[in-house]
Amino acid sequence: MKSAAVVNFAPEKGSVEVREIPVPEIGEEDILLEVANVGVCGSDLHQWTSDHSWPVNYPVVLGHEFGGHIAAIGARVKGWKVGDRVVSETAAVIDTDNPMSRVGLYNLDPTRKGFGYGVNGAMTRYVRVPARCLHRVPDALPFEQACLTEPCCVAFNSVVNAARIIPGDRVIVLGPGTIGILCAAVAKLCGAEVAVVGLENDRGRLEIARQYGCEVIIGDATAWAKERDGLGADCIIDAAGVSATLRIALQLVRPNGQIAKVGWGPQPLNFSLDPLVQKNIRLHGSFSHNWPVWERVIALLASGQLDVRPIIGGVWPITSWHEAFEKMHHGEVVKSVLKPV
Description:
Layout (H helix, E strand, L loop, with lengths): L1 E7 L7 E7 L7 E10 L2 H8 L10 E2 L3 E9 L11 E4 L2 E3 L5 H4 L10 E2 L11 E5 L3 E3 L6 H4 L2 H14 L7 E5 L3 H12 L3 E6 L4 H9 L3 E4 L3 H4 L7 E6 L6 H8 E9 L12 H5 L3 E4 L5 H13 L8 E6 L3 H9 L5 E5 L2
Parallel strand pairs: 11-12, 11-14, 12-13, 14-15, 15-16, 17-18
Antiparallel strand pairs: 1-2, 1-4, 3-5, 3-9, 3-18, 5-6, 6-10, 7-8
C-alpha cells in the first residue's frame, strides 16, 4: 500500500512535490503512526524556497508538527497500544550516550536528526516514530490543535526556560509568524506586557496577535520600548527569520535586559555587537525542546490556557500542500494545517 507524501527531493528552490510512498517499516522500538494532522512550519517553507541554513537528507518527506493514532507497535515497545492518541517530539534520531542526551537535553545532541529534514516526516498518512518520542493526547484535544504542540514547545522553551519572563516584564516580540505569536501568547501567560512587531505586510497576522491581548506595532517599536522609564524593554524575543533583527533587539532592550533569539537566519550580521557589552545584555539562543516541556505544553493546551485556534488559518488535504504553503509564505494565514488523504 502506498500513500501521498509531500517530498522535498532536492536542494534547488521549489523542489517539493507529491509522491506516492510505501508504508514505512518499523523497528522493535518504533511505532507506526497514522497521521491525523500535520502543521506546516516555517522551516518547511524555507526548505521549499531553499533559503534554509541546516543540512537536509534529500529526498525527505516534510513535516515535524504532527499527531495521530498508533497503527502498529514494535516488539519491544511497552506502555502503548494500537489506537492510542499521541503527538510526537521531533528528535527522531539521537545518540543516547551523548553527554547532552544523558542529562535530558537530547534536543542539543549535535548528532540529532529531526523529522522532515534528517528522516522522513509526517506530511503523509503513515510515519515511523521511535516510541520514546510519544506523548499522550487527551481525548478532548482535537488533533488540529494537538499537532501544534511542537511550535508551542518551541515558544515555551524560549520564553519560560531561556528568557525566564516574570510578571510585569515588558516584552517585545520581533516577527508575527507562528513562533512569534506563540511566544507572545506564552509571555502573556507569564504575566508580561507584550508588544508584537511586524512590517506593513504583516497586518493580518498582527491582528491575530491582538487576539492574544498583545499590543501590535508596525515598524519602529522604540516608543513602546521606552514607555515605562525611557530605558527600553526588559526582554526582546527575536522570532524573525533573518539575522538583522538582532540589531533591532539590541537597540530596543534596556540595560541589563535580555534577548532570546529563537528565529533562524543564515545571513551574516555585518554590525557591531558592542551594545551587547555596553548594555550588559544577556543573549540566549533557544533551540527545540525536551520531554518535560512537551508534558507541560500539552497540559496547557488541554486546559485551554494556551489556545492555538486563533493562529490556524485552515486545514488542507496533503494534495493541496502548495496552496497551504503559499498562504503561509505570503502571510495570508499564520499557520496552515494539512490532513492526509
